[in-house]
Amino acid sequence: MTRKIDVKLYGAFRQYSPNKSVTVSLPAEATVSSLRQAFAEQFDDDNARALLKASAFATDEAVLDEQEPVPSDKPLSILPPVCGG
Amino acid sequence: MMTIHVDTKNEALSTEAALAHCSAPGHGAADLFIGRVRDLNQGRAVNAVSYDLHPLLCCNVFREICEEARAEWGEALHFWLEHRQGRLAVGDDSVVVAVSSPHRDESFKACRYLVEQMKHRAPIWKQEHYVDGDSAWVQGHALCSHG
Predict the structure, then answer these.
(1) Would you call A85 and B94 a contact, using CB atoms and an 8 Å cutoff?
(2) H helix runs in chain A, sequence order
(3) B64 touches chain A (CB under 8 A)
(4) What's the whole-model pTM score?
(5) To which H or E segment does residue A6 belong?
(6) Contact: A79, B124; criterion CB under 8 Å
(7) B141 Cβ partners below 8 Å, 6+ apart?
(8) Residues A82, B123: C-beta atoms closer than 8 Å
């Protein structure tokens, strides 16, 4: 059984999708690491894939670890390296 | 009164509100930091910066940083941390941080802590717009540790 997951884009990722999000299909029990792989397959741009390696997945509450299961009921985002101020 | 105030804003930031919040009869010190858009970065002339941020997560991280500072420098401290989003011109205020405390040492240290941690941990991104018409996202600090 698979599910579709919308991942909101921020920062430099915004240039890769006019919708400001990317939808990926994942098994129900997928981990964040699997999400990263599925997300990478959405891009054929080397710069986007390099950016993904330095980026973190997060809910609205916290950054997710790679081995965590992908939450089923929370909005997800991809966060490139940050630089506030 | 809530002693920690954090927010993200689409309009101009208020230093007056920050200092009003960071005030108490027993506080003999208040420290105010303002981050502003600079006209030059790494040799390129800048005329504006667009700030993108994740508002909910940003406020969670801001609050977490303030609580860490309160645990380190004292329960009595008051904290203010607000960051702008959207396009800002050179000279506009991008972030306002304020801390008040009974004595100056805690305010100086806690304010510096808030600023440095915000820059390294808060989900905020900036796209610089250059005088020559080009734009670029500024490289930052990775939040992931997956290698």
Answers:
(1) yes
(2) 32-40, 46-53
(3) no
(4) 0.95
(5) strand A2-9
(6) no
(7) A81, A82, A83, B119, B120, B121
(8) yes
